[in-house]
Automatic annotation (TrEMBL):
SMART domains linked: Zn_pept
Domain annotation Peptidase M14: ranges: 99-215
InterPro entries tied to this protein: CARBOXYPEPT_ZN_1, Peptidase_M14, Peptidase_M14_domain
GO biological process terms held by the UniProt record: peptide metabolic process; protein processing
Protein name: Peptidase M14 domain-containing protein
GO cellular component: extracellular space
Amino acid sequence: MKQILFIIFLLFTVIFAYVEKRMVEITFNELTELQQLVDIGIDLDHHRTHSEVHAFVTDEEFQRISQMHFGIREIPNQAKLYFEELRRNTSNSRNPMEDYHNYNELTTFLQDIAANYSEITNLESIGQSVQGRELWVMEISDNPGINEIEPEFKYVANMHGDETVGRELSLYLIQWLVEGYGSDPRATDIINNTDVFIMPSMNPDGFENGSRYNA
């Protein structure tokens, strides 16, 4: 299982090792013209209409698409703008962003769980992010660290830095499992009969920077 997680880490390191991209709207006349964008490796997001598509592009790609006679305009990153607004407006109040676990809080949360429930958990880092943050994986099992003949489940969250809900839900899942062991029949059955691996944040750099990408 550790080998699988390490391979996933390497793959996503390559996938997210981009310069910062911005979301744009690209307009065209015929759907067949989209193939030109695919051929040059543009990160298409989704179709809006039969003449419009959203994509994530670098500055260089923006210029190249403009020269190909497509219509193109930047779409403001509302998530990042909101993130930055919350960062600024913290006078006389608690920072609303602290309602989500930042990297240090997430690390403390996981380390506390590992210390308090050592008989059913195993916390390991499978590597570091571009900016040097640990990529934590929590194993939850009745025999953590032992390769048993039972189903294994892997949960990976926060692959895009600005997609944060799964990150928090994975922490809640960890908490529900360990606190329910021995008292909640469902949680107890899961831990006794499966090996669960949870990676709350594949992209901690992106989360800290309020960015879709990693650094």
